[in-house]
Design goal:
- The protein is mainly alpha-helical.
- Among the domains are: 100 residues, Cytochrome Bc1 Complex, Chain D, domain 2 (Orthogonal Bundle); 117 residues, Cytochrome Bc1 Complex, Chain D, domain 2, CATH 1.10.760.
- 34% of the residues lie in helices and 4% in strands.
- The chain contains 10 helices and 6 strands, in the order H-H-H-E-H-H-E-H-H-H-E-E-H-E-E-H.
- The strands form 3 sheets. Strands 1-2 form a two-stranded antiparallel sheet.
- Helix 2 packs across helix 5.
- The radius of gyration is 21 Å and the shape is globular.
- The C terminus is likely disordered.
- Bound molecules: heme C (HEC) (2 copies).
- One heme C (HEC) binds next to helix 8 and helix 9.
- One heme C binds next to helix 2, helix 3 and helix 4.
Length: 326
């Protein structure tokens, strides 16, 4: 018996020792570095169509994090709508300034970052989503927009703020928040005639609705979005401008807690203009006002086909303080 206790004691001590070592490793090593992605040298042709499409994507997908209202450009800001558990994270200056922005990045370096999350210096960019399933043409359009004469990206000498990640954020970059692989084959946008397929593309690849609208960033599955915990059932936590916690909402076809009882028109209103049948929607829900009605309708058609999840959020009458109820 005594011997058994000794063995258990030793085993516990070993586990504790390993846990301390792992924590020290994460704390010291911080956010990991990787080999920068290797893409062939390329020059994205800047066409008016691409600049227009890139502007649409950037207004929907980049401006909320990168726009500083004071500079009127994509000069970066404190991303303060994430829960405090991630620490203080700052988006970067992505204007054309050669030193302080991305003026000196090559097209392949930009594309490599968008696909994998790894910068030209090998540093993994935290929080910034990776666009691993985005169509090649959409990626080229973002690059064309960043190179365009749009006032949002005109060179501005504003230094990017260094990151102040929490221990949790650092630990996550060693476990779940990892770089994504470069695509192995060409990716194209599904045709508008296949509404459900196009909708799935918009929700999982271009506008990444699932990223915010599933249960928790920590249980999202970037490679296979449908395998994310509570896929599109809402409940992911954010912080509003006034410091209140809000939850993303249930977009599955459950009639009581999801959008099963919504009309197509109600959905378009909510997504494009932030008007839900229950009232105006707050940030960080982006206003996708520049997307077309066809795109919003395609997303509605797709969302009607996914498995329903019963998950009530505050507007359905669930506890208003989700942190306390966890
Ligand atoms: C959720 C917020 C968020 C969104 C959305 C986002 N970014 Fe970022 N981005 C960041 C943060 C934070 C960093 C800095 C990360 C770091 O330094 O570790 C960053 C860094 C970058 C960088 C690297 C700049 C540098 O000098 O290191 C580029 C380029 C970039 N973002 C472009 C984009 C584009 C283009 C989009 C839209 C397609 C976009 N981002 C969407 C948060 C975001
Ligand atoms: C940055 C995170 C984020 C992204 C990206 C995002 N949402 Fe949201 N969304 C939210 C939050 C948070 C709310 C709740 C807002 C509130 O409570 O006022 C919300 C609310 C909604 C609602 C209202 C639902 C209801 O029951 O009232 C709809 C519809 C919606 N989002 C659709 C979408 C679609 C479609 C996309 C992608 C095109 C998307 N969202 C992308 C965070 C996000």
């Amino acid at each position: 018996m005594k011997k058994l206790f000794k063995i258990i004691g030793l085993a516990l001590a070993t586990v504790l020792f390993l846990a301390v070592c792992a924590a020290a490793f994460v704390q010291v090593r911080g956010i990991p570095n990787y080999d920068p992605p290797k893409l062939p040298a390329q020059k994205v042709a800047i066409t008016p169509e691409r600049v227009l499409q890139g502007e649409k994507i950037a207004m929907s997908m980049c401006a909320d994090c990168h726009l500083d209202k004071k500079t009127g450009g994509l000069t970066g800001r404190h991303v303060d709508d994430l829960p405090a558990e991630f620490g203080k994270l700052y988006s970067a200056n992505i204007t054309q300034h050669p030193e302080m922005g991305i003026g000196n990045w090559t097209d392949e370096e930009l594309i490599g970052l968008f696909r994998t999350g790894i910068g030209r210096d090998g540093r993994f960019r935290v929080v910034m989503p990776t666009f691993v399933h985005m169509a090649d043409e959409d990626i080229y359009s973002i690059v064309a927009f960043l190179r365009s004469d749009n006032p949002l990206v005109r060179p501005q000498a504003v230094a990017s703020h260094p990151q102040e990640p929490s221990f949790l954020a650092k630990a996550l970059t060693h476990t779940v928040m990892k770089p994504t692989p470069l695509p192995t084959k060409p990716i194209s946008v599904p045709p508008a005639t296949d509404q459900v397929k196009l909708g799935r593309y918009l929700v999982t690849a271009r506008y990444l609705c699932y990223d915010c609208h599933s249960q928790d960033f920590k249980t999202n599955n970037i490679m296979e979005p449908e395998k994310s915990g509570g896929y599109l059932g809402g409940g992911n936590r954010f912080v509003t401008k006034t410091g209140q916690t809000i939850l993303s909402r249930n977009l599955t076809p459950d009639p009581e807690t999801g959008i099963g009882d919504w009309s197509e028109q109600q959905f378009v209103q909510a997504v494009k203009y932030g008007q839900s049948p229950t009232g105006p929607l707050q940030a960080p829900m982006p206003k996708f006002s520049v997307i077309s009605d066809e795109e919003a309708k395609a997303m509605y058609a797709y969302l009607k086909t996914i498995p329903a999840i019963k998950n009530a959020t505050p507007e359905d009458g669930a506890a208003a303080n989700p942190v306390a109820s966890r």
